[in-house]
Design a protein that fits this description.
With about 550 residues, the chain is mostly helical. Helix content is about 75%, strand content about 0%. The termini are close together. This is DHA2 family efflux MFS transporter permease subunit.
């Protein structure tokens, strides 16, 4: 593996020695696995308002997704390292089995807390699936061809993204939200059978690296407490509360301990010396920032359509479909351009992430009078820009590390995206709740403060349930109608205040997300471009192998 003059490593790809049939079957297996994991992420989005209403957990509803992401993040790096040593096959089988177990348990969740726990189990399997999918593509194809096949994987993500929101909304409206989890069972069992029978293991020959279990434990301790603190802050507890501050500080300390530990072990989970080169460092930082904004944006768009624009769960899923298609086309176009131009990360990254920032900026201007067309067009723009980043920074990272670190480096991209997403969801969720409460204080009619019972008033000002749950809306209107002759009219004004407050809170979330995306654009301008290698063999430029 050669080091260029600027200190970036050109990837030396080694042919895995598989037959064309093995390559084809491996690719098919990866496609199905990716479809399984990505469908679950998108099918849940449109059901969240209904889940939130049924299980009564507005203050924790972001953790339906955060728990999944936190759990998946905790296994991504160790999955990449283990697969470098023991191969991909049985890890894939185990990942899907864990995912299906979590799906079955989630379907029968009696409370919001139980659902959050079972989504965490799903996340363990889903994180392993995501990590192994991209690593396997890197095994099968040289850097110059990977972007094309990353496009195929993105197409599976796109198919599930298109089907997921609409299917999730339809199932939620026609059956119940429990079935969005049960649908994974008949889909996943055939995939397990396919992997057991046909998937080549690809166990690595030669000296084997040791698994850095200590590093895996430390990185989990560095992530989970901080995310809990961010979720609690401004929500269940004040930001100055010792529990919140202590959780964040503890995570910061453990992050430092993790960094020191990784410099002292022979086979680190995250080889810091390799990731110091500029291409990889910038690619991972931009991935962190776009992940921060991405997960928060996708999560809050269904709430915008259902809560502010009055769409049903099915309709909001249909509105998400064009945005997801934008992601697919953005990823496909970016991958093709990257393969044909040979590694122009900088210009593609600046253009693509800038488009994402523009879309988020447009969404930050939503209010109670926003039209469906405006929200939909803004979401499509954001989705296209987001899609361009999917293959770009993964390929850049793979092209900047030695072959022996390919698994953990590829997993690191997913890890940084997931960490960003976890932080984004926790922070955006707490921020939205705070902004909603603040908006209600400003928008609630003065008459409501005098006529509404304290318990009902507290419910109104802390939860927009009346906008997404017909039973809650009917109950609220009945309560106002019973309060006097002008009660019905006052009830309508209160509902409108809830809508305006929710719209303002969601707009504030998108504005905050846009700031982080703009930061990603600026950072991308400093990435260095290195040509993508076409095949194995010695690199074109001389240099020393990294120690």
């Amino acid at each position: 593996m050669a080091e260029s003059k600027a200190g970036s490593f050109q990837a030396e790809w080694k042919d895995p020695g598989l037959t064309p049939r093995q390559v084809k079957l491996t690719l098919i297996g990866v496609m199905f696995a990716m479809f399984l994991a990505s469908l679950d992420q998108t099918i849940v989005a449109t059901a969240i308002p209904r889940i939130m209403a049924d299980l009564d957990g507005f203050d924790r509803f972001t953790w339906i997704s955060t728990a999944y992401i936190v759990a998946s993040t905790s296994v991504v790096l160790i999955t990449g390292a283990v697969s470098d040593v023991y191969g991909r096959k049985w890890l894939f089988v185990g990942a899907i089995a864990i995912f299906l177990l979590g799906s079955a348990l989630a379907a029968f969740s009696p409370t919001m807390n139980a659902l959050i726990i079972f989504r965490g189990i799903q996340g363990l399997g889903g994180g392993m699936i995501m990590a192994l999918s991209f690593v396997t593509i890197a095994d099968l194809f040289p850097p110059s061809e990977r972007a094309k096949y990353m496009g195929i994987i993105s197409a599976m993500f796109g198919v599930s993204s298109v089907l997921g929101p609409t299917l999730g909304g339809f199932i939620t409206d026609q059956l119940s939200w429990e079935w969005i989890f049960l649908v994974n069972i008949p889909l996943g069992i055939p995939v397990i059978a396919l992997f057991i029978k046909l998937f080549p293991n690809g166990k690595k020959d030669g000296p084997q690296r040791k698994i850095d279990v200590g590093g895996a434990v430390l990185i989990v301790l560095a992530i989970v407490p901080g995310l809990l603190g961010l979720s609690w802050g401004g929500n269940q507890y004040e930001w100055s509360d010792p529990l919140v501050a202590g959780s964040v500080i503890f995570s910061g300390v453990m992050l430092v301990v993790f960094g020191l530990y990784e410099t002292r072990v022979p086979d680190p989970l995250l080889p810091l010396a390799v990731f110091k080169n500029r291409i990889v460092g910038i690619a991972l930082l931009v991935t962190l920032l776009t992940g921060f904004a991405m997960f928060g944006a996708i999560f809050f768009i269904p709430l915008l359509f259902q809560g502010v624009l009055g769409a049903s769960a099915t309709a909001s899923g249909s509105f998400l479909t064009p945005m997801m298609l934008g992601i697919v086309f953005g990823a496909a176009i970016s991958g093709q351009i990257l393969s044909r131009t040979g590694g122009h990360y900088r210009i593609q990254g600046i253009i693509g992430v800038s488009i994402m920032a523009i879309g988020m900026g447009l969404l930050s201007r939503v209010d109670g009078s926003t039209t469906h067309a405006y929200a939909l067009g803004s979401a499509i723009i954001m989705g296209f820009g987001l899609g361009t980043s999917f293959p770009l920074y993964t390929i850049a990272t793979q092209n900047g590390v030695p072959q022996q670190y390919l698994g953990v480096a590829t997993s690191a991209v997913q890890f940084f995206r997931s960490v960003g997403g976890s932080i984004g969801l926790a922070l955006f969720g707490s921020y939205m709740v705070r902004q909603f409460k603040s908006g209600m204080e400003a928008n609630l009619p003065a008459e409501a403060l005098e006529t509404v019972p304290p318990q009902l008033l507290d419910q109104i000002t802390s939860n927009p349930n009346a906008l997404v749950n017909s039973d809650a809306s009917e109950s609220l209107m009945n309560a106002f109608a019973a309060s006097g002759p002008s009660g019905a009219a006052l009830g309508e004004r209160v509902v409108e205040a809830i809508r305006e407050s929710l719209a303002g809170a969601i707009g504030d979330v998108f504005f905050l997300a846009a700031i982080f995306v703009v930061m990603a654009v600026v950072i991308t301008a400093f990435i260095r471009e290195v040509p993508l290698r076409k095949r194995g063999g010695p690199p074109a430029s001389g240099g020393a192998r990294p120690e």
